[in-house]
Amino acid sequence: MTVTVQLFARARDLAGTSSLELDLSEAATVGELREVLISQEPRLTPIARTLLVAVDGEYAANDAPVREGAEVACFPPVSGG
Amino acid sequence: MSETNQARLHVELTDGPIDFAALTEEVRSPAAGAVVLFLGTVRELTNGRRTVALDYEGYPEMAKAKMLELCRGAAEKWPVVGARVVHRLGHLELGDVSVAVAVSCPHRKDAFEAGRFLIDRLKEIVPIWKKENWADGSTEWVHPGSEFTTELS
Question: Can you give the pTM of this predicted structure?
Fold first, then answer.
């Protein structure tokens, strides 16, 4: 399945785009999504360790499932305020 | 949480200046003997480095949802009469207000604690980021916990 990942802040700047399409297996998890993301966009490697993943508006751990059509976003630690 | 409380919780993202006087007025009520307003403003010096401006970016849908979640959380912990959380996005100059939290409770201890909770948690979980525009012309995303971070408070 194909999942679109939105990127923000330094992640977007490093990747040079605000969204990426990733090919994932049908039973993909957030952990797999991270691996595919970094292999497809190695420029994100410097911040791979600190990247956060949100699925459908909620922070998602590596074992969380990613379903087709999910809204996925990856971004570095937040710094609002 | 009662329906009344729910109606008195409001969050917003804006590209323009935050009218914090109006915001404060919105949470005032005869039921609340205490109103606390917190403003986050663009500071010039961070660890000796000089800032000329900040650029804020957000993930709007999730940011608003998380801000509202925090308001609901505050209303569960403290007797919140009204709460407003507004964050500004875009280019901000020194002294500009980047975030405003207004909260009212029957008594001041609760109002202070609820306000502190709202701004502290906002800085931890709401997906908004700031980029420093340093006086030397360089720019730098602020990402706590990464090697590129300049810790701000």
Answer: 0.93
